[in-house]
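Recall that a protein's primary structure is simply its ordered list of amino acids. Everything else, from secondary elements to tertiary packing, is in principle encoded there. The following example makes that idea concrete.
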Amino acid sequence: MKKPEKKFFSNGLGQLAIPIIAICVLVIFNLIRDPSFFGIELLHNNDGNVVLSGNLISIINGASELAILAMGMTLVTAACGGQDISVGAAAAIAGSVFVKVLKSGQSIGAGTVILAFVLAIVVAILFASFNGTLVAVFKIQPMIATLILYTCGRSIAYWINGGATPTVESGIINAIGAFIPGIPLPTPVIIVVIMAVLFKLMFHFTSLELFTQSVGINGSAARLNGINSTFIKILSFMILGVCVAVAGCIGVSRLGLINHETLLIDIEMDAILAVAIGGNSLGGGKFKLSGSIMGAYVIQMLTITLYSMKVPSTNVKAYKAIVIILLVVIGSPVVKKWFEKTISRFKNRKPEVAAKGAGES
């Protein structure tokens, strides 16, 4: 009996083909253009601490908020078959709450920072639950449901701090946004690793990954198997809310202030693209979290590459759009199907050629 042929893009490595190829192409291009592009240096920052510096550090550091949001966006996409376009606005709200609590005390100590962070997470989860309820209970398409918060979210962030852009000066906040004294790696990079480990542990010790994929593939069948699809969808939004709060707090800590208009502006589009570049279906179902993280670094590497080529900042988005369109088209179901058919045809031709050669001899 002939074994069923395994499709290339259905296995783990095949799903990561697009981000891996994209990273390889960008690495080769930059090494040809400038062999020292990925060079890393040890420098002393303004505080006198030894820190790592270079384009590679800028890439992994600059993509931190995007990578964190891409993790949460992957779950929402997988469970709901749609995307949350309000993550940038929600991050501004979480960041505003974070600053509001920090400014409420006489001094900014470790306890105040922890309280501010916890309250930012709680507020972000509440807004995410609102989005999740619209999607899971009222059956509103995710992009339409989250359009409400996308439209008014930054106005809410503006009201929280009375329209001001207060600054926060604290060694702890500086350490969160930049470097912890004695550790040369940027703190946001460490936070990304922690978040990725937490997701890995969550998937390992619970059935969330399986339930999320089941709901995304066929919600009706999942319900018949005892899975509460409504709860899974709302939970995916709540987890995204935690990611939003973490990203918002990192963004505030980087700048040392809250600017509701510019904090993580347009990051929702990059988060959706990171999920798509990572080989995940935007229609829901099976997902690969590592692919979305790699997609975030592809986008940031492309951005740093364009800036290093002296491309004007006004033109960067246009060039990014062209490259990302190519990546998304290459990873589309039509191209994947054609690629798999070509591989299958090539494999089937080999036995025919071998048999023909044997017959002639």
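Residues 333-360 form the longest helix (28 residues). The first strand starts at residue 41 and ends at 44.
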